[in-house]
Write a structure and sequence with these properties.
Radius of gyration: 18 Å
Strand order of the largest sheet: 1-2
Number of strands: 2
CATH superfamily: Winged helix-like DNA-binding domain superfamily/Winged helix DNA-binding domain
Largest sheet: 2 strands, antiparallel
Distance between the termini: 31 Å
CATH class: Mainly Alpha
Order of helices and strands: HHHHEEHH
CATH architecture: Orthogonal Bundle
Shape: elongated
Length: 140
Amino acid sequence: MTGQRRDLGASFAYLTRALVEAETPILRAHDVEMWDYVVLSALESGAAPTQSELAAVVRRDKTRLIPILDRLESRGLLSRTPDPADRRNRVVALTSEGRAVMTACREDIRVMEAEFLAEVPAAERRVFLEVLEKLAARTG
């Protein structure tokens, strides 16, 4: 690749695969699957008004989301309660146990990320993370 850089999509795909591979054993140690973590992360800032809205946020088909919610609810990591305004809907929220699992996963992931980025000078790492956050905020 002399004089050329990879396309952004290719670079992000490579990094995503590497980070997912690095996160998988961390999540497994907490008995959490990747999609479980995605759902728990989405609920971290507050309850989802409906399962359909949660499915849209995590970009997972509702029919595929339900088994994930069932599994997380059976472990006491989230709750689904009828929406008082429309009892057909279920409000999905983290429980205190779910928040504790989420926090433990995130702490261990941050350690892995620090190791992953260790060879990048601190100033460049800071800029990289700031730009990545800005891009992420713009897209979702």
